[in-house]
Amino acid sequence: MKVIISVIVILAFVATSSANLQCEHAKPNIPTEWIDMVKPCVKKMRAQIQTELEASIQYLAMGAHFSRDKINRPGFAKFFFQAASEERQHALKLISYLLMRGELTSNVSKLIKKTIVPPIVSWTSGVDALKDALRLEAKVTKDIRGVIEECEDPKEEEGNGYNDYHLVDHLTGEFLEEQYKGQRELAGKISNLEKMMDEHKALGEFMFDKKLLDEL
Amino acid sequence: MKLLFVCCTILAAAFAATGDECYKDSVRVCKSVLKDNKKDKKDFSLPSCSAKYGAILEMLPELQQYVNSHITRNFEYMLMATHYGNYEKSREGFEKIFMDLSDSKWDTAIDLIKYITKRGGEMKFDNIKADTVNDENASYELYELNSLAKALDMEKELAERAHLIHGQATRRRENLHDPEVSSYIENKFVHHHAETIRKLSGYTSDLTSLLSGPDSSLALYIFDDYLKKQSIV
């Protein structure tokens, strides 16, 4: 009889405890020796994510400007909208890299700002916007170099001397590669457009815009 | 009485604007070239030749805010996906659906900007709805069920906003009627929202019953694996 009662009690206990919703689970116990990125380098990488997103919103503003009826440059608009999505992809690639290296386990909510207002929202001409784009890319390149420098030879005490070979190689081989190619492309476009507009201002931009629209 | 008269004149002028104003503008600028060809600076602008018609002018602020909300949601979902991508959480399925949602908000933001400019409007990135980001310190590092719940709330808010815009464009606000806006909202937003909201609601139901079972950790693992193969948008 006692056994039956105790079984019933145990069963009842199991039933009530499993009626609770278990939403939270304990953190797993994983060795951390493999996580070897140093603080100053991680900090720079995190900041670079925000930089790429800000560039993306700036390009979005360019796309919006050239889409307007008074401006009517669909080729330029398409070019800049694509650039905006590319910059966003760069930010996502940086996030993926940090996740791969065992980072971003905490303080994720502060990683990016939830609203970004683009500093410039109108341009006098297509060539004017392309020049701004080239300046923006040069700034991003400089920032990536800054990340590389910090991760190759961290100056602060926390990461003294820890050379992050893989990240440095990744940023140099993938990110800088794309930056330099993109900058050359922009410079070439500015060159062609400006030469065309020298004598045929409106027609030059009109034709260049239609060419952009076909090419992309 | 005077006030009424002024109002009538303004209204009359507004109606007249839908007549042949662009043509008149074009005639004006063509003449001005002949007359003052010695002047260096001429005004070649054709203010009445914009693409604006219908109720788009009045709808613009609402649409601009809607774009900015999509950009913000894109960032928020990005953070939620990132959280599930770290090795401690390691939930690929959750990471995927939040990243899909982030991508979709971004693409929609671009689409909306194109739409605004198609209707002759201009995008204003600083026109941000005050309560979009209610808390800069909000946490996006959530437990599985909570994150689905948050996503459901966010999607419902966007859906209600779409209804609001649709309503205003359908004479809910006085004299505003723009069937092109309401049709766009219906085709691009209303039906999609219903799909996503239903899926998210279904997920929360499933997960709630799974988490009350005897092995919630295993249930989460299996549910996450299931999410990997689902498309939320």
UniProtKB/TrEMBL annotation, chain A:
Keywords: Disulfide bond, Golgi apparatus, Iron, Iron storage, Metal-binding, Oxidoreductase, Secreted, Signal. Fe cation binds at residues 52, 87, 90, 137, 179. The keyword Metal-binding applies. Its main location: Golgi. The keyword Chaperone does not apply. Residues 35-197 form the Ferritin-like diiron domain. Oligomer of 12 light (L) chains and 12 heavy (H) chains; L and H chains are disulfide-linked. The functional molecule forms a roughly spherical shell with a diameter of 12 nm and contains a central cavity into which the insoluble ferric iron core is deposited. Belongs to the ferritin family. This is Ferritin.
TrEMBL record, chain B:
Residues 53-211 form the Ferritin-like diiron domain. Residues 1-19 form the signal peptide. Belongs to the ferritin family. Fe cation binds at residue 155. It holds the Pfam family Ferritin. PANTHER family: FERRITIN (PTHR11431). GO terms for cellular component: cytoplasm. Keywords: Iron, Iron storage, Metal-binding, Signal. Gene3D superfamilies: 1.20.1260.10. Stores iron in a soluble, non-toxic, readily available form. Important for iron homeostasis. Iron is taken up in the ferrous form and deposited as ferric hydroxides after oxidation. This is Ferritin. One of its GO terms (biological process) is iron ion transport. GO terms for molecular function: ferric iron binding; ferrous iron binding. PROSITE patterns: FERRITIN_LIKE.
